[in-house]
Please model this.
Amino acid sequence: MTPQQVAVNEVWRDWHRTDSWLGPVWFRLHGLDAADGQDQIEVGLSNRTYDRAAGKTFINAKVQTGPGLSGSKELVQTGFSVWFYNEQGERIGVSDGVTASLTNGQPQDVRLSVDGDVTRYAYATVHIGMLQGRIQSEVDPSASMEIADPAKPGVRIGAVRVRQEGEYIVVQGQFEADMKGPNRVKGMLSFLDADGKVLGKAPLEFVTDASYSGKGNLRAFESVFSGDVSGYTRVQLEVTSVEGAGRPNS
Model:
Protein backbone atom coordinates (compact mmCIF):
# COMPACT_ATOMS: atom_id res chain seq x y z
CA MET A 1 0.00 0.00 0.00
CA THR A 2 1.35 3.43 -0.94
CA PRO A 3 1.63 5.88 1.99
CA GLN A 4 -0.76 8.81 1.75
CA GLN A 5 -1.08 12.15 3.50
CA VAL A 6 -4.38 12.62 5.33
CA ALA A 7 -6.03 15.52 7.13
CA VAL A 8 -6.55 15.10 10.85
CA ASN A 9 -10.00 16.47 11.70
CA GLU A 10 -10.18 15.66 15.41
CA VAL A 11 -7.95 14.43 18.22
CA TRP A 12 -8.81 12.70 21.49
CA ARG A 13 -5.94 12.02 23.86
CA ASP A 14 -3.36 10.34 21.58
CA TRP A 15 -5.91 9.25 18.95
CA HIS A 16 -6.40 11.03 15.60
CA ARG A 17 -9.47 11.06 13.36
CA THR A 18 -9.48 11.32 9.61
CA ASP A 19 -12.46 10.97 7.26
CA SER A 20 -12.54 8.54 4.35
CA TRP A 21 -15.18 7.51 1.83
CA LEU A 22 -16.07 4.71 4.27
CA GLY A 23 -16.56 7.17 7.14
CA PRO A 24 -14.45 8.36 10.08
CA VAL A 25 -11.25 6.44 10.85
CA TRP A 26 -9.47 6.72 14.23
CA PHE A 27 -5.78 5.86 14.47
CA ARG A 28 -2.68 6.25 16.64
CA LEU A 29 0.80 7.15 15.49
CA HIS A 30 1.96 3.96 17.25
CA GLY A 31 0.30 0.56 17.46
CA LEU A 32 -0.09 0.05 21.23
CA ASP A 33 -0.99 2.34 24.15
CA ALA A 34 2.46 3.74 24.94
CA ALA A 35 5.78 4.16 23.14
CA ASP A 36 9.16 5.83 23.53
CA GLY A 37 10.07 8.94 21.55
CA GLN A 38 11.70 6.94 18.73
CA ASP A 39 8.87 4.35 18.70
CA GLN A 40 11.31 1.50 19.26
CA ILE A 41 9.33 -0.19 22.03
CA GLU A 42 5.51 -0.15 22.34
CA VAL A 43 3.48 -1.35 25.32
CA GLY A 44 -0.23 -2.27 25.54
CA LEU A 45 -1.83 -1.44 28.90
CA SER A 46 -5.44 -2.60 28.62
CA ASN A 47 -5.58 -5.09 31.53
CA ARG A 48 -5.16 -3.02 34.73
CA THR A 49 -6.12 -3.89 38.32
CA TYR A 50 -5.62 -1.83 41.47
CA ASP A 51 -4.83 -3.87 44.61
CA ARG A 52 -5.90 -1.74 47.58
CA ALA A 53 -4.13 -3.94 50.11
CA ALA A 54 -0.81 -3.67 48.28
CA GLY A 55 -1.38 -0.06 47.22
CA LYS A 56 -0.28 -0.97 43.71
CA THR A 57 -1.66 -1.23 40.20
CA PHE A 58 -0.85 -4.49 38.42
CA ILE A 59 -0.94 -4.53 34.64
CA ASN A 60 -0.90 -7.57 32.38
CA ALA A 61 0.76 -5.77 29.51
CA LYS A 62 1.89 -6.62 26.01
CA VAL A 63 5.19 -5.33 24.63
CA GLN A 64 6.46 -5.35 21.06
CA THR A 65 8.99 -3.61 18.86
CA GLY A 66 7.80 -0.49 17.07
CA PRO A 67 8.59 0.99 13.65
CA GLY A 68 11.86 2.37 15.03
CA LEU A 69 13.18 -1.20 15.13
CA SER A 70 11.27 -2.53 12.12
CA GLY A 71 14.45 -3.50 10.26
CA SER A 72 15.82 -5.64 13.08
CA LYS A 73 15.90 -9.36 12.27
CA GLU A 74 17.59 -10.43 15.51
CA LEU A 75 16.11 -10.96 18.95
CA VAL A 76 15.70 -7.58 20.66
CA GLN A 77 16.55 -7.55 24.36
CA THR A 78 15.25 -4.53 26.24
CA GLY A 79 14.59 -3.17 29.71
CA PHE A 80 12.07 -0.38 30.20
CA SER A 81 9.60 1.37 32.49
CA VAL A 82 6.30 3.13 31.78
CA TRP A 83 5.44 6.62 33.08
CA PHE A 84 1.74 7.45 33.64
CA TYR A 85 -0.02 10.85 33.47
CA ASN A 86 -3.51 12.11 34.27
CA GLU A 87 -5.70 14.45 32.20
CA GLN A 88 -3.89 17.51 33.62
CA GLY A 89 -0.48 16.19 32.58
CA GLU A 90 0.55 15.37 36.16
CA ARG A 91 2.68 12.27 36.55
CA ILE A 92 0.75 9.82 38.73
CA GLY A 93 3.05 6.81 38.63
CA VAL A 94 6.10 5.06 37.24
CA SER A 95 6.19 1.30 36.74
CA ASP A 96 8.90 -0.97 38.04
CA GLY A 97 11.45 -1.79 35.38
CA VAL A 98 10.92 -4.99 33.39
CA THR A 99 12.92 -6.83 30.74
CA ALA A 100 11.79 -8.60 27.58
CA SER A 101 13.26 -10.45 24.61
CA LEU A 102 11.32 -9.53 21.49
CA THR A 103 11.01 -10.92 17.99
CA ASN A 104 10.11 -8.31 15.37
CA GLY A 105 6.33 -7.83 15.26
CA GLN A 106 5.55 -10.48 17.89
CA PRO A 107 3.96 -9.20 21.16
CA GLN A 108 5.19 -10.63 24.46
CA ASP A 109 3.27 -10.69 27.73
CA VAL A 110 4.85 -8.89 30.71
CA ARG A 111 3.53 -7.89 34.13
CA LEU A 112 3.98 -4.32 35.34
CA SER A 113 3.49 -2.99 38.86
CA VAL A 114 3.04 0.67 39.75
CA ASP A 115 2.79 2.29 43.18
CA GLY A 116 -0.66 3.86 43.57
CA ASP A 117 -3.77 3.73 41.39
CA VAL A 118 -3.10 4.45 37.71
CA THR A 119 -6.05 2.49 36.31
CA ARG A 120 -7.64 5.70 34.99
CA TYR A 121 -4.48 7.20 33.51
CA ALA A 122 -4.86 9.44 30.44
CA TYR A 123 -1.49 9.13 28.76
CA ALA A 124 1.69 7.06 29.17
CA THR A 125 5.24 7.02 27.82
CA VAL A 126 7.89 4.30 27.60
CA HIS A 127 11.43 4.90 28.88
CA ILE A 128 14.08 2.47 27.66
CA GLY A 129 16.90 1.76 30.10
CA MET A 130 18.58 -1.03 28.15
CA LEU A 131 18.51 -2.07 24.51
CA GLN A 132 20.50 -4.99 23.06
CA GLY A 133 22.66 -5.16 26.19
CA ARG A 134 23.58 -1.47 26.07
CA ILE A 135 22.51 1.04 28.72
CA GLN A 136 20.42 3.81 27.16
CA SER A 137 21.12 7.30 28.53
CA GLU A 138 18.54 10.07 28.24
CA VAL A 139 21.11 12.82 28.84
CA ASP A 140 23.66 14.38 26.48
CA PRO A 141 26.77 15.72 28.26
CA SER A 142 27.70 17.78 25.19
CA ALA A 143 24.40 19.70 25.07
CA SER A 144 24.22 23.36 26.03
CA MET A 145 22.66 24.03 29.46
CA GLU A 146 21.94 27.74 29.05
CA ILE A 147 18.18 27.91 29.61
CA ALA A 148 17.73 29.40 33.09
CA ASP A 149 15.49 31.68 35.12
CA PRO A 150 17.47 34.92 35.71
CA ALA A 151 15.91 35.12 39.18
CA LYS A 152 17.09 31.60 40.10
CA PRO A 153 20.12 30.80 37.92
CA GLY A 154 21.07 27.80 40.07
CA VAL A 155 18.77 25.57 37.98
CA ARG A 156 19.37 25.12 34.25
CA ILE A 157 17.89 22.99 31.46
CA GLY A 158 18.94 22.00 27.96
CA ALA A 159 18.51 19.55 25.08
CA VAL A 160 14.78 20.31 24.99
CA ARG A 161 12.81 18.10 22.58
CA VAL A 162 9.11 18.43 21.78
CA ARG A 163 6.72 16.02 20.08
CA GLN A 164 2.96 16.08 19.55
CA GLU A 165 0.92 12.99 20.44
CA GLY A 166 -2.71 13.76 19.64
CA GLU A 167 -3.87 16.44 22.05
CA TYR A 168 -0.78 15.99 24.23
CA ILE A 169 2.63 17.58 23.90
CA VAL A 170 5.55 15.60 25.33
CA VAL A 171 8.53 17.72 26.40
CA GLN A 172 11.79 15.96 27.21
CA GLY A 173 15.17 17.37 28.14
CA GLN A 174 17.75 17.47 30.89
CA PHE A 175 18.42 19.62 33.95
CA GLU A 176 21.20 20.38 36.39
CA ALA A 177 21.10 22.23 39.71
CA ASP A 178 23.80 23.82 41.82
CA MET A 179 22.26 22.35 44.99
CA LYS A 180 23.55 19.01 46.26
CA GLY A 181 21.40 16.28 47.76
CA PRO A 182 17.61 15.96 47.96
CA ASN A 183 15.64 18.81 46.43
CA ARG A 184 12.32 19.36 44.67
CA VAL A 185 12.24 22.09 42.05
CA LYS A 186 8.99 23.23 40.45
CA GLY A 187 8.56 25.59 37.55
CA MET A 188 7.09 26.38 34.16
CA LEU A 189 8.53 26.15 30.68
CA SER A 190 6.96 28.68 28.31
CA PHE A 191 7.00 28.27 24.52
CA LEU A 192 7.14 31.59 22.64
CA ASP A 193 6.84 32.50 18.98
CA ALA A 194 9.01 34.98 17.10
CA ASP A 195 6.89 37.89 18.38
CA GLY A 196 7.23 36.84 22.01
CA LYS A 197 3.68 35.50 22.27
CA VAL A 198 3.30 32.58 24.69
CA LEU A 199 1.87 29.59 22.80
CA GLY A 200 1.75 27.22 25.75
CA LYS A 201 3.25 26.35 29.12
CA ALA A 202 4.56 23.02 30.39
CA PRO A 203 4.65 22.34 34.14
CA LEU A 204 8.06 21.15 35.34
CA GLU A 205 9.13 19.25 38.44
CA PHE A 206 12.68 18.08 39.11
CA VAL A 207 13.38 15.79 42.06
CA THR A 208 16.89 14.84 43.23
CA ASP A 209 17.93 12.41 45.94
CA ALA A 210 20.74 12.24 48.51
CA SER A 211 23.20 10.99 45.86
CA TYR A 212 22.85 14.10 43.71
CA SER A 213 26.23 15.87 43.53
CA GLY A 214 25.06 19.24 42.21
CA LYS A 215 26.43 21.28 39.30
CA GLY A 216 27.47 19.15 36.35
CA ASN A 217 25.23 16.21 37.33
CA LEU A 218 22.71 15.96 34.49
CA ARG A 219 19.32 14.33 34.98
CA ALA A 220 16.57 13.73 32.42
CA PHE A 221 13.08 15.22 32.73
CA GLU A 222 9.75 14.79 30.98
CA SER A 223 6.61 16.90 31.03
CA VAL A 224 3.23 16.31 29.37
CA PHE A 225 0.53 18.90 28.72
CA SER A 226 -2.37 19.53 26.37
CA GLY A 227 -2.05 22.16 23.66
CA ASP A 228 -0.33 23.16 20.43
CA VAL A 229 3.03 24.94 20.38
CA SER A 230 3.83 24.44 16.70
CA GLY A 231 5.70 27.50 15.48
CA TYR A 232 7.53 28.17 18.74
CA THR A 233 11.01 29.65 18.31
CA ARG A 234 12.32 29.72 21.89
CA VAL A 235 11.59 28.50 25.39
CA GLN A 236 11.71 30.35 28.70
CA LEU A 237 12.18 28.80 32.15
CA GLU A 238 10.50 30.11 35.31
CA VAL A 239 11.43 28.45 38.62
CA THR A 240 8.52 28.84 41.05
CA SER A 241 9.83 26.95 44.10
CA VAL A 242 12.85 25.08 45.43
CA GLU A 243 12.36 22.80 48.41
CA GLY A 244 15.02 20.77 50.19
CA ALA A 245 18.18 20.89 52.22
CA GLY A 246 20.61 20.88 49.33
CA ARG A 247 23.69 23.10 49.40
CA PRO A 248 25.23 24.83 46.39
CA ASN A 249 28.12 22.89 44.89
CA SER A 250 30.98 25.29 44.48
In short: The chain is about 0% helix and 55% strand. The radius of gyration is 19 Å. The chain has a mean pLDDT of 88.
